[in-house]
Each structure stands twice: as structure tokens, then as C-alpha cells.
């Protein structure tokens, strides 16, 4: 066995410190009840930060979101809840003047834009449109908003009124529940197609009729299901809108060809600025002087996990890539205040870091050390940013002025995680080993809360989804390693080949190799962890995973079952062929399997768990949800049926009202109670009793 290597990491990554003996362990009930910061906006002058906090109402089985304000000049002063948000508020944004706070609320019966001032005492409705407002952005001149509305694209020239009339006519004249489809998507993520598209409109504060900005565009802006206001931006002079979108046609489920378009704010035909690139172009931003456009771009059509490079387009239309040798994929991108560099977040060795990228030279400089940086704002007093880690959920921090690394001496501005001070958490560290092809592979091990030296502990072996994803130094409200540590389990997680943040070649290695290269990494990572960490009890271990992780647990059940006393598979692929026939985003399956299931079905059998189900014998808990259209519920039913047919100890947990994720508070409680009971019975204190 190769000797395991220990990564020299920062203090926040290595250990959470000795826990007080009288502290209760952190539990999944604590996690579900935690308040959650869901975003951040800072005014242009850097004086105030406004952010939404979602509290959990278990009795009503929902989250309740309010807005909070922080005076950045008074870091020690507590944040203030804005009374204006009591009727429900989300997606808060400062107006360009820094005096007005816009937000979305459905308090009037539909989702509209509202506003308040810095005092947050009263709320005033801004838009009164007959359709729900989705994403929105204030224009830089302060004279209006760009909003997204779901309209029928065939209503060209009169999208809003025509959509309202069409919807009313359908209710009146067609009492049937039947729907005729002429193209796919017929459903996407967790919704059935209703014929509408997200389109953009300019709503001026002068009372004039909304201006259609994507009139007749056969596509969604923002994109579905996860697009937001980052999919569009307005030029500094407020004369031009830039947006990214995909022309649907009849190829939408097979295409990743998003393009960047421009259109005058007065309306008219949109111009495709990236027609030459048949891959994904996304998230345009304009320089402060309005002379250049920056956007993210992939190079390979049909691949959703290609590296996002940084492209810059000057006034003449000339395009070049910034930092083409930087082997990281850009996530969030902003112009720095100097206009000469970009601020970019990107996955990096199990973390999500902030970087500065010089536009002229392409030089990349890291600005953060560890954890998971999401939203950030550059101010005269330093960076204001949202960050989370395995140790804590998203919190707002203020860096020291001109600090080389924003982590050094940063001030924590919020305390929505205050309950954690009274909870024992599991110390964790990152480790490395030699995996497939001799490559260095990273993993994380977490000690149980209240760890006692010399004692051994059962292990939860967590396998991430994606497959182009990562289980790194970040917080999750669904798969949270600290909840397992709080229940008395050690945790091992391996960022196998295919994981993000380790370079594109590492990420590419999983495509068409779902069951061999990552499995080798998992096997070697498990052996390496057992060799190094004597407190891991290899005879009491359970493998758990969701999505691709659910595929892998299904695959492990027939191809590497020896170490495991139990398995949990959540929304996992059971029959690879049927996955190809029934999933919605076909480009994903075509790329990952190396061909279409309709023309090359045999390729889908190379790593098909269903073909090995006859060998399953390890007790398995199967979890699946009816509204999961990415990996349809029949995959879970198929796995459970195979287990029952083989007389393997098994249970099936079904959620009729959830999608690929379990989001409702009471459902999350049920999920965790069922999963932890399964672990307790097979590898915990209840095992064998």
C-alpha cells in the first residue's frame, strides 16, 4: 500500500479544536433548524450590506425569509431585521444610489418587485404586472428595472397581454387535463413544460408600458432550472442589455449551445455575439467604462462540465481568452474596481476560492485560502463576502483593507450560526493518496464529535454526486458530514477522478468511465484512510451516495460490496439504458456514455448497475422522489424491486412532493431519521440487536 500523504492545510481546515466535554453534539435536527443566509448585496458606496435570512417553521413545514441590514462601519453592532420584509422577501438588491433596497415578495398575491429604504420601516410595491416576476436587475441610471416573466414566445409583439389572455382562455375553454406536446423538453428538473418561456422586459419608473427585450426568443432567460439575474446585465449607460440564452428549437435536450446576445433597451432584434462558438457561453458582464464585455465560455459542444474560460470582447468585436493556461473553471465573475482585473471564484483542491485575474497579462492571484467563498463585493474598507466551510454555514465577513488574503484577520459580521458555539463538532482534515493512473487524489476525513483517543468508530463513507462535483470544505444542508459526526460516526469522503477543482484533465477522466476509474479511487482512498487513521473501524462501515453517488452505491453493491455492512442509495441510477431513455437533459447522457442510447445502447451497459443486481447482498436503503425528472423515480423502484426479488434486506423511502433534492423541513427530518436509523441498526450501537 502506498504511504498516505497529509496535506498541510490552514488551521480552519485541519481541526475545529478540542471540544468541551459538556457540549451536546451537533445533530441533523440542529442543522434543519439553523437560520440560513441566502445571498448578499452591498451598496455602491460600501456602507451597508443587506441579506436574506431563511428561518425554518417546522410547524408549517416551510422556510420564512426576512431581510437583514448590516452597517459595515460598525462591525461589532448587531444586524437589524427590516420590518418591511415581514410579509416575505427575497433577492434583495441595492438601487444604484445606495438609498433604496429592492426585493421580491408575493405578499400581494403574486411575485412582484417591492422596495424600502435603509430604515426598512415600510414596503412599497414597485411593479404591478399581471405575471409573476422572476429574476430582476435595477438599471444603472436608476430609471427602471429589467425583469423576467414567463410568457408564450409565440405571442410575439404583445407577449404580456397575449399570455394573460391565452392562460385565461385555456381555463375557460379547455376543462380537460390533457396536454399535447410537439417537442421535448416535456418536463425539466421538477416541472412539466407549460409552453411558457422566461423572457426579459424593461419596466421604467415613468409609468410607460413594459418594453419587450427578448420578444419572440425561443428560449429561456434566465435559463431553467437554475438560471438567475447573472444570466443578463445592463451596460453602464443603460442603453444595452446583454443576456445569455439557448435557442431551443427541437434540439434543446441535446444542446449546450448557449450564446451571448445584445439588444437595445428600447427593444428590437437581438444580436448573437458568440455564434461562432457552438458550446456554452454564459454570464456576460460589462466593464465599468462600458468598452469591453467579459463572459464565460466552454469549448466543447454537448458537454456541460467543460472548463469555463474567461473571454473578453472589445468594442471592435475582437475576442480573446484571458488566462488560457489557468486550469480552473470560472464560477462567479466581476470586474474589479480598477477595471484592469477580474474577481473570480473557482473550485480549487476541495475549496471554492476567490482569485484576482489580471486582464492584460492573465496573471492569477489567489485572494482566499480555504473554505467556500460564494458572493463577494469589493469596497474601500475591504472585501465583504459570504463564506462557509465544513465547520459553519454561510456567514458574512469583512476583510482588512488591502489585505493580501481576505481570510487574514477578517471580521465575522453575522451570527446566525450562534447555536454552533454550544455544539461539539467533528474535527476534520484533508488527506491525499495515489489513485487511478498514479494521480494525486484528495479526500477529507472527519472525526466523530467528542472523539476519544484510542477508541474506534463506525464510518459513513460519503460519495458525492455530479459526477463533476466535490465533497470539500463547504457546508451543506442536505449531505452534511458534521451531522454524521454528531451521531457518533467518522466520515470519509474522496474527491475521485471527475471531481471539480483539480484541473480539466482530472475532471474529464470520469466520462465513459463511471464504474472503473472513480471506483479505483474510492477503493484506494478507503484503504489509505484505514491505514492512516486508526480510529476508523473498517468492519463497521456504510457507503452512502446520491445522484451519481447513488449510481456508485448501486454499482458498489455488485462490484465492491465486501467492506460494507449497509448501503444508502438516494436518487441513484439503477438501469443505465432506461436512464438514457427517460432523463430530460440528453446531452449529459450522450457525453457521459459516449453516444446516444437510441443508436448505441450497448455503451450504456458497460457500467450498468442493473446487470449486476443479481449479485446484490448488502442491506440497502433506497430513497427516491416522484418529482425527480433528472433521475426518474422508476430508477429507485427498480433498485428496490431487485433487492426484494433477491431477498436482500431493504427499505424504500419515497417522497411524492420532492425533486432531485429533499427540501421541505419535515421531509428532511424524515430523511435524516430514516438514514440514521438505518446506519444505527447496521453499524452503530443498535447493530445486531
Summarize the structure in words.
The chain is an alpha+beta fold. It contains eleven helices and 42 strands. The chain has a domain at 425-682: Alpha/Beta hydrolase fold, catalytic domain (Rossmann fold, 3-Layer(aba) Sandwich), CATH 3.40.50. The strands form ten sheets. It has a nine-stranded mixed β-sheet, with helices on both faces.
Identify low-pLDDT runs: 1-20
| CATH homologous superfamily label of the domain at 425-682 | Alpha/Beta hydrolase fold, catalytic domain
Going by CATH, the architecture of the domain at 425-682 would be 3-Layer(aba) Sandwich
Number of strands: 42
In terms of DSSP E residues, the strand content is 25-35%
Assign a percent range to the helix content: 10-25%
Measured distance between first and last alpha carbons: 35 Å
Based on helices, strands and strand pairing, what is the structural class?
alpha+beta
Kindly identify the CATH topology of the domain at 425-682.
Rossmann fold
Tell me the overall shape. Answer: globular
Amino acid at each position: 500500500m502506498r504511504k498516505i500523504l497529509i496535506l498541510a492545510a490552514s488551521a480552519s481546515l485541519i481541526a475545529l479544536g478540542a471540544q468541551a466535554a459538556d457540549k451536546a453534539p451537533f445533530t441533523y435536527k440542529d442543522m434543519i433548524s439553523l437560520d440560513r443566509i441566502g445571498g448578499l448585496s452591498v451598496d455602491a458606496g460600501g456602507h451597508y450590506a443587506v441579506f436574506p435570512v431563511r428561518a425554518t417553521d417546522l410547524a408549517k413545514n416551510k422556510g420564512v425569509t426576512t431581510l437583514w441590514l448590516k452597517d459595515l462601519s460598525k462591525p461589532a453592532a448587531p444586524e437589524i431585521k427590516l420590518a418591511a420584509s415581514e410579509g416575505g422577501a427575497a433577492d434583495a438588491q441595492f438601487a444604484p444610489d445606495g438609498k433604496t433596497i429592492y426585493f421580491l415578495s408575493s405578499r400581494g398575491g403574486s411575485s412582484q418587485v417591492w422596495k424600502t429604504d435603509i430604515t426598512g420601516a415600510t414596503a412599497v410595491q414597485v411593479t404591478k404586472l399581471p405575471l409573476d416576476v422572476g429574476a430582476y436587475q435595477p438599471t444603472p441610471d436608476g430609471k427602471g428595472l429589467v425583469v423576467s416573466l414567463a410568457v408564450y414566445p409565440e405571442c410575439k409583439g404583445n407577449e404580456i397581454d397575449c399570455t394573460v389572455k391565452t392562460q385565461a382562455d385555456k381555463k375557460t375553454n379547455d376543462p380537460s387535463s390533457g396536454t399535447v406536446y410537439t417537442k421535448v423538453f416535456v418536463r425539466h428538473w421538477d416541472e412539466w413544460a407549460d409552453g411558457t418561456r422566461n423572457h426579459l422586459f424593461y419596466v421604467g419608473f415613468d409609468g410607460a408600458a413594459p418594453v419587450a427585450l427578448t420578444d419572440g426568443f425561443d428560449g429561456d432567460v434566465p435559463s431553467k432550472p437554475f438560471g438567475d439575474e447573472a444570466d443578463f446585465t445592463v451596460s453602464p449607460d443603460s442603453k444595452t442589455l446583454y443576456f445569455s440564452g439557448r435557442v431551443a428549437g427541437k434540439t434543446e435536450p441535446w444542446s449546450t449551445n448557449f450564446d451571448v446576445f445584445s439588444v437595445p433597451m428600447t427593444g428590437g432584434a437581438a444580436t448573437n455575439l458568440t455564434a461562432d462558438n457552438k458550446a456554452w457561453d454564459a454570464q456576460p458582464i460589462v466593464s465599468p467604462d462600458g468598452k469591453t464585455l467579459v463572459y464565460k465560455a466552454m469549448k466543447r459542444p454537448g458537454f456541460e462540465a467543460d472548463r469555463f474560460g474567461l473571454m473578453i470582447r472589445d468594442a471592435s468585436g475582437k475576442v480573446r481568452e484571458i488566462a488560457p493556461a489557468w486550469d480552473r473553471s470560472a464560477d462567479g465573475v466581476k470586474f474589479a474596481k480598477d477595471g484592469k482585473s477580474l474577481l473570480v471564484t473557482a473550485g480549487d483542491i476541495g475549496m471554492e476560492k476567490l482569485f484576482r485575474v489580471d486582464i492584460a497579462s492573465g496573471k492569477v492571484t489567489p485572494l482566499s485560502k480555504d473554505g467556500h467563498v460564494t458572493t463577494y463585493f469589493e469596497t474601500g474598507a475591504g472585501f465583504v463576502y459570504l463564506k462557509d466551510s465544513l465547520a459553519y454555514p454561510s456567514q458574512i465577513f469583512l476583510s482588512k483593507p488591502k489585505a493580501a488574503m481576505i481570510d487574514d484577520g477578517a471580521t465575522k459580521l453575522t451570527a446566525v450560526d450562534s447555536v454552533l458555539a454550544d455544539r461539539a463538532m467533528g474535527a476534520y482534515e484533508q488527506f491525499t493518496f495515489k489513485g487511478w493512473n498514479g494521480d494525486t487524489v484528495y479526500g477529507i476525513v472527519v472525526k466523530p464529535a467528542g472523539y476519544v483517543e484510542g477508541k474506534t468508530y463506525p464510518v459513513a463513507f460519503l460519495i458525492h454526486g455530479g459526477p463533476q462535483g466535490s465533497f470539500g470544505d463547504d457546508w451543506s444542508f442536505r449531505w452534511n458530514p458534521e451531522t454524521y459526526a454528531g451521531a457518533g460516526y467518522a466520515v470519509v469522503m474522496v474527491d475521485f477522478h471527475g471531481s471539480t477543482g483539480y484541473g480539466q484533465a482530472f475532471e474529464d477522466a470520469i466520462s465513459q468511465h463511471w464504474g472503473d476509474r472513480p471506483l479505483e479511487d474510492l477503493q484506494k482512498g478507503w484503504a489509505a484512510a484505514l491505514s492512516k487513521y486508526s480510529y476508523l473501524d473498517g468492519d463497521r462501515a456504510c457507503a452512502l451516495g446520491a445522484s451519481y453517488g447513488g449510481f456508485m452505491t448501486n454499482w458498489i453493491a455488485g462490484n465492491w460490496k465486501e467492506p460494507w455492512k449497509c448501503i444508502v442509495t438516494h436518487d441513484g441510477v439503477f438501469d443505465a439504458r432506461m436512464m438514457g431513455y427517460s432523463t430530460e437533459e440528453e446531452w449529459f447522457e450522450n457525453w457521459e456514455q459516449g453516444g446516444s442510447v437510441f443508436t448505441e445502447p450497448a455503451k450504456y451497459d458497460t457500467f450498468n448497475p442493473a446487470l449486476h443486481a443479481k449479485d446484490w447482498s448488502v442491506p440497502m436503503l433506497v430513497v427516491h422522489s416522484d418529482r425527480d425528472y433528472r433521475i426518474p423515480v422508476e430508477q429507485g423502484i427498480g433498485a428496490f424491486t431487485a433487492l426484494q426479488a433477491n431477498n436482500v434486506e431493504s427499505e424504500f423511502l419515497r417522497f411524492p412532493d420532492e425533486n432531485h433534492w429533499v427540501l421541505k423541513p419535515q421531509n428532511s427530518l424524515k430523511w435524516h431519521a430514516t438514514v440514521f436509523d438505518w446506519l444505527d441498526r447496521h453499524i452503530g450501537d443498535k447493530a445486531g440487536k
